[in-house]
Design goal:
Radius of gyration: 16 Å
Distance between the termini: 21 Å
Helix content: 10-25%
Number of domains: 1
Strand content: 35-45%
Structural class: alpha+beta
Oligomer: single chain
Length: 120
C-alpha cells in the first residue's frame, strides 16, 4: 500500500511532512518562494485500489480534498507579512506550528478515546 510522501507538490504548493501517526498528519505548506504559508493537519484517508480509464490506481494513503477542510482537515495559516522583522516572522511561524500540534494532539487523543470515528 502506498503511504503519504514526506514531500508532495499539490495545487501550486509544496507540502513537507512535519509529524504523523497512524491516523493523522501535519504538513508544512510552502509557496513558490519557499515561505511557510500554513500548516495543515488532517485525518489520513485510505483509497482502495481502483481503475480509471483502464489505468490501475494503487491503494494507499491520500491527501484530503478541498471539500474535507473544516471536517477532517484544517489549515493553520502563518499570516506572514513582508514588513515584519525576521524575529516577528519566526514568532508567527512558531505560533502557527504550536496550533497545528495542538490540533494534531487533540484529534489523536479524541480518536484513541473513541470520541472520533474512522471517518473523522
Amino acid at each position: 500500500m502506498k503511504v503519504l510522501k514526506e514531500h508532495e507538490r499539490k495545487n501550486g504548493y509544496d507540502y513537507y511532512l512535519v509529524e504523523r501517526n497512524e491516523n493523522y498528519a501535519v504538513y508544512k505548506q510552502t509557496d513558490e518562494t519557499n515561505d511557510i504559508y500554513a500548516f495543515e493537519v488532517f485525518k489520513i484517508k485510505n483509497r482502495k485500489e481502483t481503475e480509471i480509464k483502464g489505468r490501475k490506481i494503487e491503494a494507499g494513503e491520500v491527501f484530503p480534498g478541498n471539500e474535507e477542510f473544516g471536517k477532517t482537515a484544517w489549515s493553520i495559516p502563518v499570516f506572514s507579512c513582508n514588513f515584519l522583522s525576521e524575529n516577528e516572522q519566526k514568532i508567527r511561524i512558531n505560533n502557527a506550528l504550536d496550533k497545528a500540534y495542538k490540533k494534531f494532539e487533540e484529534l489523536t487523543l479524541n480518536y484513541e478515546n473513541g470520541k472520533l470515528s474512522e471517518t473523522e
